[in-house]
Design a protein that fits this description.
246 residues; alpha+beta; 4-stranded antiparallel sheet; 7 helices; S4_RNA-bd_sf; rRNA pseudouridine synthase activity; RNA-binding
C-alpha cells in the first residue's frame, strides 16, 4: 500500500465518503497508531487506523448498488437513527448512500463503498441530471411551471434553471442538476404549493425502472460504463486511462 491522506484512506476502505471522513477526523473519532488523527495526516504502510475504535482495511472491493428507497427510511449511515438506510439495506459489506432523499420521499438512490464518487456525482457544476415525479396539493398552472423552470429563491440563493413538464392536473416531472436540501419541496412551498408525493426515477442514465420500494440490485456493466464516461467512476486498474475532455 502506498502512503495516503487520512481521509482518502478512510474513503478507500469503504467506510464513508471523503467529506464524511473529514467530519469524523474533526470530531476526534479517528486514530492512527493510537494517536488522534488530524486533517492532512498521512497514513503509511503498516499503520493501524481506527474509527470509533474499529480497524479499517484501507482497501475494499468496490460495490455499486441501486435501491428504491421507501418512504420513512432516512438517508444516513448513522446507526443511532433506527430507520437509517444502511441498516435497512443490510448489505453484507459496509456501504453508504450517495446523496440523499428526504424521509418523506421515495425512489432511486445509489449505495456504494466508493468514497471517491460522491462529490463527482453531486456537484452542480457537473450538470448531472436527476429526475423526479411530483404531485402537489393544487392544480399545476402554466405560471407555476414557468417560475419553477426559471429558478426559485430558496435558502438564500436562486435555484438553477431546470426542466419541468406537467403530467396531470396536480402532477409534474422535474429534472434538476443540483441538490439543495429538500429543494423541490422548498421550491413548491415558495410558490404556494405543498408536495404530497415525490419519487426520484433517474440519476443520469440510471433509471429506477420496475424496481419496487425496498428492492435493490447491483448496477449493470452498462450502467457502470456510463458512469465512467460521465467522469464519475475511474477506469478499472487493468484498463487504459481515458483522456479527460476539456
Amino acid at each position: 500500500m502506498e502512503a495516503k491522506r487520512l481521509n482518502k484512506y478512510i474513503a478507500d476502505s469503504g467506510y464513508c465518503s471523503r467529506r464524511q471522513a473529514d467530519r469524523l477526523i474533526e470530531e476526534g473519532r479517528v486514530t492512527i497508531d493510537g494517536r488522534r488523527g488530524v486533517l492532512g495526516d498521512t497514513v503509511l504502510p503498516g499503520c493501524v487506523v481506527l474509527v470509533d475504535r474499529h480497524p479499517l482495511s484501507g482497501r475494499s472491493e468496490k460495490v455499486y448498488l441501486m435501491l428504491n428507497k421507501p418512504r420513512g427510511i432516512v438517508c444516513t449511515a448513522d446507526r443511532r437513527e433506527p430507520l437509517n438506510i444502511v441498516s435497512y439495506l443490510n448489505y453484507p459489506e459496509r456501504v453508504f448512500p450517495v446523496g440523499r432523499l428526504d424521509r418523506e420521499s421515495e425512489g432511486l438512490i445509489l449505495m456504494t463503498n466508493d468514497g471517491e464518487i460522491v462529490n463527482r456525482l453531486l456537484r452542480a457544476r457537473g450538470g448531472h441530471e436527476r429526475e423526479y415525479e411530483v404531485r402537489v396539493n393544487a392544480p399545476v398552472t402554466a405560471e407555476f411551471l414557468q417560475r419553477m423552470m426559471a429558478g426559485v429563491p430558496i435558502l438564500d440563493t436562486v435555484t438553477l434553471p431546470c426542466r419541468v413538464r406537467k403530467t396531470g392536473e396536480k402532477s409534474f416531472n422535474i429534472v434538476l442538476v443540483q441538490g439543495l436540501n429538500r429543494q423541490i419541496r422548498r421550491m413548491c412551498e415558495a410558490l404556494g404549493y405543498t408536495v404530497t408525493y415525490l419519487r426520484r426515477v433517474r440519476i443520469l442514465h440510471i433509471r429506477l425502472g420496475n424496481l419496487r420500494p425496498g428492492e435493490w440490485r447491483p448496477l449493470t456493466p452498462g450502467e457502470l460504463e456510463g458512469l465512467r464516461k460521465a467522469g464519475i467512476l475511474d477506469a478499472p486498474s487493468d484498463a487504459p486511462a481515458r483522456e479527460e475532455k476539456k
